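Q: For a teaching handout, I want to show students what a protein-ligand complex looks like in token form. Below are the inputs, and the small molecule is iron/sulfur cluster. Please produce the holo structure.
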Amino acid sequence: MQPVNTQHLRNYPKKPTQVYLFGTCIVDSFFPDSGMDAIELLEREGIEVIYPQGQSCCGQPAYNSGYKEEAKAVAMAQVKQFPLDIPVVVISGSCGGMMRHHYLDLLSDDPAINNFCQRVFEFTEFLVHVLRLKPIDQGEKERVALHTSCAARREMGVHITGNKLISQLANVDLVLHDYESECCGFGGTFAVKHADISAAMVADKSKHLVASDVVRYVSADHGCMMNINGALDYQKESLRGEHIASYLLNRIKGQSKAQSKGQSAKEAL
Amino acid sequence: MKHVHEEESKYAASAKDFRKNVTRDLANEELRANFRGAMDYLMDKRKSAFSSADELEVLREQCKLIKQRCLAKLPHLLEQLEDKLEHNGIKVHWAETVTEANEIIAQLIAEKKAKTVVKGKSMVSEETALNDYLEARDVECLESDMGEYIVQLAKQHPSHIIMPAIHQNKQQVAQLFADNIDGFEYSTDVDTLIQQGRTILRDKFCQADVGISGVNFAVAETGTLCLVENEGNGRMCTTIPDLHIAITGIEKVVEHLADVPPLLSLLTRSATGQAISTYFNMISSPRKQGEKDGPKEVHLVLLDNGRSQAFADEELRQTLQCIRCGACMNHCPVYTRIGGHAYGTVYPGPIGKIISPHMLGLDATTNLPTASTLCGACGEVCPVKIPIPKILLRLREESVKPNREQPQVMQGQGAGRSAVEAIIWKIWAQVHKSPTLYALSMWCLTRCRFLMPKKLAGWTSVRTAPKLAATTLHQQIKAKQAKQGRG
Ligand code: SF4
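A: Here is the structure, written as tokens, with iron/sulfur cluster included.
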């Protein structure tokens, strides 16, 4: 399978009454508030969110490191946690791409895998194409940037759906930063294995985001944000990224990040 | 499988130094600026070459299918090509290794007692380090492509497969010419520089005994060697000297003449954004009776050098679809940062990461497949739709495979395996496939989060460390449900 963005060719289901949420291991251990915000946003839309407690990680770290058998075992264990025929909403484009596209390869000996992959939706994709969310913006006027993770962009089309959601916010000016589509340099173990290349990449990404003169940037992937926010914090820049679930919820509720519950922007590395 | 011997290649050693090279080149601000500027320019050029995304997609699919069809019939097409070429009067030579290729060429030159060679741009001759080989045998080998000429003067090798001297800016080239060319009139004007370079080269063309060139497409059906170029030097190399030797990789064969136009159109547009190159040469025979020019003898050397290893595996075979346009490197955020020389291989960038392991062994190139964020920019632009990120994953897998596991897919398989890493992933899998163990480990982690180090290897050299949450998402949801249950 070639990971290409074929999202626009998908048949989207009608708005369901129930969905599963796949929280991802990064959100689970570092950024649980983003997960809670995603749930709140979905519940406000009248959807019951089921969060199977048995879920852990999509398996991508091992898969990307060449440990296919290990990735397979973990992937299989995840699939078992989502038996009902309802959408699985994933709050990361990168993990979404793994579960929607790469599971087909990895778990090809499982006859039910196709059905599972068909049920996987990235969070913003789900909001735009299934919920057809029209967020009512109650927040103050501000300029923001959008950073789309590469897997989210190329495998899940999040640059389109993320853009669409933010563009609908009446008081938000979405600013395109230079080299917007360029990778931030995270790449999972890449950031550790090839730390100096990764450092050069995130230095450029953070520089371009700062130069775009926005109050915050928004992303659907905490992997990239851990990288970019970490670099911004190290450089003592005040700019931070926020998960799109939290951002949308705050805009709808008319809360700015500073007022909202949970992590302060500083904490949200 | 015949193993490529390391001593056969100076590149195996430099590829092993990847990390050192990266550190060196990342620190070179001027170099980084040169690459950034050049890559931005080439990306813009490519973008403006296609009228619509749909047109591009249709062409890419078409060209992918052409290359896949030709590769599926590769052994047969190679035989057909040999028959046709010999019938047309072009002599065919087969070389399994780079040394064999060099020996064949040196022998042909020696037979003519020739002493001077002009070369058109040929990455395959870089692969065999032909210049070094011939110079050691007292044959002067002059590069005639302007970029290659600059690189040769600077005693370097190409940093890009289409633009060999892209790592140099015009001031650096002017200085290089000033230091090396008698009577050079100092100028940093690009046209003046090229003009002066060309004047020197033109004399050499007329004196050379032998012309050496690459091949972009070798047509099996007609026995035609196609050569794409912009400077006219390729045409001169293949027409003026009495002996023309072409060298190329076995994957360059295409079935029909009709396969060439779509591939050519996509090649030039992906590479430089040109609708067509300035020159397109089709060589089908030596000089015939009554013709006024052209070489008296034409030879083709077909090189394997690890290609049949890639060919043997269906997934890795896709590597051979490459038409060497360079678009993957132009769009690669890693290549843009570290430049072409850091890879240490003949072919840099994404294509270099997936083809070099077959040429040099995965042991010499273990650092290449991991030096990618898998961002997918390369796969997105590749005109023949090679799933480069997917192949990088596959190479990572081959690299960490238990040593000598059968079947042996490639030379150097298992070279990147570390026992410690393997055990860590085993434990990781145990924890993440068991809900109980995962819950337990998260419970421990969140309780011990004050123990989390402030410094995390390379991560914290430019970033602060992320902080573990006090309560996980699992725990927060459980708490919320308990509250709702009570309420
Ligand atoms: S891999 Fe694709 S993009 Fe890269 S040089 Fe080859 S054909 Fe061009």
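A: Two things your students might notice: Strands of chain B lie at 90-95, 116-119, 140-143, 210-213, 217-219, 224-229, 243-249, 253-254, 279-283, 297-303. The radius of gyration of chain B is 26 Å.
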